Give the backbone structure.
Amino acid sequence: MDKKYKLCFEFVPDGCWYSNLRSVMPGAWKTIRKNVVARAGGRCAICGAPSARLEAHERWEYDEKHAVQRLKDVIAVCPDCHAVIHYGRTSLKGDARAAEEHFMRVNGCSYAEMRAALGAANADHIRRNALPEWSLDVGKAADYL
Ligand SMILES: [Zn+2]
């Protein structure tokens, strides 16, 4: 992930597919999702666009030395930003082009810069996939309950 952009491609390592709040703490996730969206004031936390369809998104950081996937925060995002974040899934649905355009618009960057960010996210993904197993740290979830 490239830290200089406010909207980033976020690829979860393959070993982490089921490591999300929804599956780890399904009851709490409903409350977290509701609280995060309620506190957002109807605006996307990334692009600032007003949206009646905000979605809660978990952001993770990866401690590659200790193979820990740690919850960083949970934010309310609009469907367009969420489609960029989950670019892999979005591409499979055939919507890659719209997601790429939204990335460039929100971040004010060129096509080449967007492609470079995508390449960097892919490189992170491949490197993290080399670790067979990640442990999960969701301590931060308590902040949203
Ligand atoms: Zn947005």
Q: What stands out?
A: The chain has one domain: 14-137. The pocket of zinc ion is lined by residues 44, 46-47, 49, 77-78, 80-81 (CB under 6 Å).
